[in-house]
Amino acid sequence: MAAEQIVAQELKSLRFETGLKQNYWMRNKRGSTAEVDFVILFDGKIIPVEVKSGHNSHLKSIHQFMNDTNHDIAIRIWSGNYSVDKVKTLNGKEFRLINLPLYLISALPHILPRL
Q: pTM of the full predicted structure?
């Protein structure tokens, strides 16, 4: 919970607008629920952001989100190292997963345009 709060504050600090709420994504399909912690808008695309406090590699919700979108960028904020990995969903969609350490959240506006 603390990691999600830190990420929420950092993401909010990257925006110049005040009073806007953080957005997230939730899928309610019979027999299957999924939730992505945050979504951000970049270059007209809705980018999923998942917060993982450990080295947990399970990203089922991001995979479901990416299956339903028309772009190839997702973000995991975690305690691990920075990397950009090519990932494939079970449905075969390839996307780039930005693995971003907590201390690099403020660099997102510089990282995203370079992809």
A: 0.84
